[in-house]
Amino acid sequence: MLPLNLLATVFTAGLAIAASIPPLPGVAEGRPTLDVPTLPEVQAMLARLQGPIISTIISRAALPAESLLYANGGKALTSFIHKTELIALTLNTYEFGSRYDYGSLEYPFTLPAVGPDITTPTNPFPPGRFHQDTFTPNADLLSFYVTTLVPLIEDANTAIAGPGGSSPFYHLKRPSSPVDVDAKYTLDDQLLALLSHWASIGKVVAEVKYRAHVAEFTPLIKSGNVNALRTLLTNTTQEKIVLESANSAAFALATAFEAAQNDPPAIAKAFVSRVQTAVARVYRELIDVTKEVEIQYLLQRFH
């Protein structure tokens, strides 16, 4: 663990950096030219996130998810995330590069996001070139997390040891208030970051589809026809593949987790089933939120 004086220094530096960031500046010059990959390559990126997302859901379900910790729209969790994001910003101070840099497709929940690109005669952003917009999925994802996913996580946790749930952390004295709060919020923060990244890759998906069908997309973008854009972007066959793959992975990973825990078969079966329910709900939400990311990206494509 970092010494307290170093943590204080890092936190103070993060505050100074955050204070210096103007809200959503419009920037185009000086940024790298980022051409998007192919659709199969993008699908492979999303597939590689499946293991981290589902394993983090399982790890989080190993700890109780008391509703008290997520009261007031997740105010305490948001405060925790804010502190971690301030620390992340200090990486630029040490020349390592922040996770929130341009083109990273990672966007903070509590800090100003990267400013949008501006199309100019000298920088027209031809089809296939990434064009940063102002939309992030984070507000929707945080709301979903607090109102929908947390109860599902708590339900999976109670399957391990009945009412009240269980925790792998051992305490000689267990207070009446929630314990291991830092561990819970750390996993919440990690899981939300993964979900945000998955959904934000939708910006690249939108650019790939636009590049392949410029003539079809252009009039819909210019007229702001959201319903037609949604129809053109939707691929129900691919959605079904994603949902089935996530369900299979959830079963395999949760089963392996329970085998390591050496729980009785009935408890293991209940936990695995409830994890699958949570994962199915997460991926349905991800598909829907990602589609909104794609639509909002395209609506700003010519700005």
UniProtKB/TrEMBL annotation:
Single GO MF annotation: chorismate mutase activity
Chief place where the protein resides: cytoplasm
GO BP term, example: L-phenylalanine biosynthetic process
Matching SUPFAM superfamilies: Chorismate mutase II
This protein's UniProt keywords: Amino-acid biosynthesis, Aromatic amino acid biosynthesis, Cytoplasm, Isomerase, Phenylalanine biosynthesis, Signal
Catalytic activity as recorded in UniProt: chorismate = prephenate
Top EC class, one word: isomerase
Signal sequence, start to end: 1-18
Entry EC number(s): 5.4.99.5
Domain of life: Eukaryota
Cellular component annotations (GO), alphabetically ordered: cytoplasm
Cell compartments where the protein resides: Cytoplasm
Record's protein name: chorismate mutase
Organism: Asterophora parasitica
